[in-house]
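Bench log, entry 3. Co-assembly request; chain sequences pasted below exactly as received.
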Amino acid sequence: MLITITYEGTNTQQLGYLLHKNPYAAQEFSLTFGKAYVFYPEVSDERTTAALLLDINSLDLAKGKENSSNTGLFDYVNDRPYTSNSFMSVALNRVLGTAMKGRCDKNQALADTPLDLTANVYMLRCENDELPKSIFEPLGYMVIIERKLLDDRFPEWGDSPYIDLTIKGRVKLSELLNHLYVTIPVFDGNKHYFIDESEIEKLFSHGGDWLKTHPYRETITKGYFNNIRSITKSALGIISEDNDTEQPKQKPLDTERLDTITQAVLDSGAKSVLDLGCGEGKYVARLLNEPQISRITAADVSVKALEAAKNRIDKMTQRQKDRVEFIQASAICRDRRFEGHDCCLLIEVIEHIDEDMLPVMERVVFELAKPKTVIVTTPNLEYNANYEFLNEGELRHSDHRFEWNRVEFRSWTEKISEKYGYKVRITGIGNEDEIYGAPTQMGVFEL
Amino acid sequence: MRIEIPQLSLVALVGASASGKTTFAHKYFKPTEVLSSDFFRGMVGDDEADQSVTDSAFDLLFKAAEIRLSLGRLTVIDATNLQKNSRKSILELAKRQNVHSAVIVLDTTLKALLERNAQQGEKAVPEGVIRRHFEQLKGTVRSLKKEGFRYVFVVGEDDADYVEIVRTKLWNDKRDEHGPFDIIGDVHGCFDELAELLRKLGYVETDAGFAHPEGRKAVFLGDLCDRGTQNLQVLKTVMAMFKSGNALAVPGNHDVKLVKYLFGKPVTIANGLENTVAEIDGESRETKYEIRDFLDGLISHYVLDEGRLVVSHAGIKQEYIGRASAAVRDFCIYGDVDGSRDEEGMPVRRDWAADYRGNAVIVYGHTPVIEVRNRNNTFCIDTGCVFGGSLTALRYPEMETVSVAAKAVYSEPARPFKDAANGDDIPAAEELLGKLRIETGIIPTITVQEQNTAAAFEAMSRFAADPRWLIYLPPTMSPCETSSEENYLEYPTEAFAYYRKNGVKKVVCEKKHMGSRAVVVLCRNEETAKKRFSVDDGSRGIIYTRTGRRFFDNRDIERTILDCFERVLETTNFWDDFSTDWVCLDTELMPWSEKAQGLIREQYAATGHAAVHSLNAVTECLKKACDRGCTQKTEHSTDIAKLLEKFSHKADAAEGFVKAYGEYCWKVDSVDDIRIAPFHILACEGQVFTDKAHRWHMENIERYIVGIDDIFVKTPHIYVDTEDEESIAAGIDWWKNVTGNGGEGMVVKPENYTSFNGKKLLQPAVKCRGREYLRIIYGSEYLDSENLSRLKHRSLKRKRNLALKEFALGVEALSRFVKKEPLYRVYQCAFGVLAMESEPTDPRL
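Structure output for the full assembly:
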């Protein structure tokens, strides 16, 4: 909603020339999403401050999007009009575009000179106190952040997710504007427009040289593209093409899990497989390449996941595709379609089921479907200690209802074996940690 | 000539071309019953005589025949059927559909055939064909019985015009017997117990066994003999009762084995047969033959009381009821077996009852269970008397059970009594997915679209609480029509007008508490939870949200609250006064922040915080600029003072918004900080209270729940007469009062829980929300006249339509549960509500 730029020094009224905006008037500009205003709260020899103010109507944002979700970008109750976000970047480009390009007809020399500039960015979404420093200090700024309680009446709700950010440094005005243009959406992480490859161009024209050498270029690039992996990857490819260093390759956990489980399926002698909770079909695609497997039933509760799984195998041959059937199904609903398979896969599924509903899943799989082999994998809670990105007690995924340590998993498998007459073998998948064990635990049940 | 065929059978006509089959068929059967090959040739190939499409024509003919038979319709196949192969397909179809097969041969002389063919003009076939057909037929007639046709009739040339077709009832069809019955489980030679049971049921001993003075009939479910010690006595008694018309009986696997033995066929004398054999061997030949013929003549199952009751020894699949075939007989006697055996060498019995979805009550025995096992309209009443359990009778139509304990353990069971593998307490995917049609008492049929069931299926699977608890989900609620008052989006006038317009004079206005909807299901104790809800994890109830999710992740909190409820209901004598040991309540649970914590923090508080702080900074900057007097005129210049005014106004609105949501939040350290306002007593054992007026609900809640424990609070309410201006004015004042401090608003309901205007179902409630409160729905600045006029264009139609359907489904779920219908029938309704909710609607309504 609001950012201000302050120029300190002598003859600072010149900021008006640099911005191409008259310090003695309040000016209004129309944008597609609302109005922008530029005015100067302070003008003097030593110190001049310009403000860029946006007025966005949340009803306009929601227009035509009546069914936006509760926390959607386009709800009537929406932080967009009040925070610093991609709308602000667009406004900077539209309203202060010439200054951003570094052009100043009245005083080009001043535009080319580093000046003592301060920017105040109000209500910038940023939950990590270190991030602003990481991003702005390498660019030569001093960084001050101010964070308040989310709601004074409810201190238990904790801090606000927004900060007021002040950066102060000796830089060219155009540099400052470009820094803001690129980084504001990185903090906010929620661009209001559709991002495609053309966005890469924009990043280069505004990111220019400074981004290439920035130690946090990956973080910035990723955030700039709303964490869309494919675009980030191609952008980073261009950014770091000159310092491409060979990294020792370690098999990612996902791949290792895929290999181990596929082998376990093949070893069981299974010809038909039920992939219960197939998700986006990674295992289906893999198993379709195994001639031993003549029939796969890929089941998931999510229609969206099933669509993605179908897309994944779209390029396979018709004969491969004929071997798989996709069904919407649930591990806690009885289902005749589950019957008649040699092997049932429950890969990273059980931790998504409420613990009190687990007995139902057990009956559906081990008592009613009763395949010869059941393969279950689930995270090993102990191993989480090795993940820096996890806070104490935090699980690997927000939808995980539980994660088990090795003792808990073992006792569960033993209970199942006894109750339903299966023999079980437990192994770990992934790099074995001396203290905490492997990241994933696998139980192979055989009748 | 008299031709007797069963009512439901597959009839093949056999005869040469030109033998008059079609004429015959149409003379003696309904046109729709006759499937003619000529007709199907015409249908697929436009020419009835085109032999090149014969295969395709028969594909379709057989498909049609299969469907007709599966629907229980007699079907006649009008084709030459001279090839053994074509008759084989007919026999296979009859077998597949478990119907009798009959064949009617038209035995025409060659001379007549040739004459008739010659008269057919263009349609005539070459003479050689007729001669060949004639020869084929001659060789066929004798072998038809051997091929497997149950009934074979040969109609000679002269008889064809004088045939009488008589359709007979199947032996198992006793629809015209209406009982009352006393259905008795596996006796296995336990005569003492049988005699005691019969006496307990009111039977008296007569010369012909036992008889009931009121004419009740005993129905024996088979396995009369073996394992016990008085087998002969039991057989003689049942036989006597059967012959005197005091009993019906179906055969069990043990009885069938005894018949084999008595016919002198090789059988292994084990599993209790040795006892029977020892008793019977000393009997006279006449007695032995009498027993043999009695047991051999028993019909595998009976369809009784207009099809409402079916009895058999081992149960029956839905599609087998009223059918007759070896497969049906085997199923009725041996159950759902496929020859596989378990580790103890016992046949593996599949649980057909879990899949049964029929309306007929099926009563059976065969599998010993500790207690009568009632699943999906089926009752297994073999309570294992011979194994030391008890002998049980089910009284029909009373559906009461009467038992007599075994006097001894006569035989050790090979496996412990336990419920066979089943899953009928787990919903089945096929009952939930696809397009659902649900019949309700309020709206005859509600259709739920496939995309909605798909969405609900995912939501239910991932988030919902145990389906066994979900006996109700509340409907969505529409707001009143948009207000014509300036400065208001919603105002009570419209709510009152809606009901007045629809003939409702009295309405109740209940304060909206601005918490979260919470449905409470509470059992008096864990025993009830187990018995009535089949939940045996030690819980005594549940509190769940309007989307069927458990309200509290923390089970201790839930438990504590349920305990509070229980204590209060115990104190007020609710359980006894309502003669129930469970209850389902509709409540509002506060604070809102308890459930909506995430939403409030991430959306409301965050937006409010950002708005207040940004706008403060903005107004400060604008003030400074104003003080400087930035008034030069340029191309884009604007009035800074007006700008300041505008943004100051926004800042005030933001403060109002923050104030509004804050009203509904408070910190919860323990259960003591929670408040619950019950507003409907939905149901308890035997009763659904949706036929009671809201006044009844309010009064009983105040009498039985509120006022003892601080956690339970009243719902302030007033009654308004929609035809009395004064009363309406009072209602409006009351609403203003309730919403003045940011209160959420009120709910206006018709006096009666369920109200109609003629045939039109009315909204069970409409809400009228407060002016300040609506900021948190429509944004802090919604009252700006420009915004408000835009917001006033909103359509309630879809929301109201959903509200009615969901209301009907919710009430239906409760009534099905109260009627003790199977889980899937109850759950389907609750699931339907959730599916309806996946229909996109404006979330702000």
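The mean pLDDT of chain B is 91. Residues 592-628 of chain B form the longest helix (37 residues).
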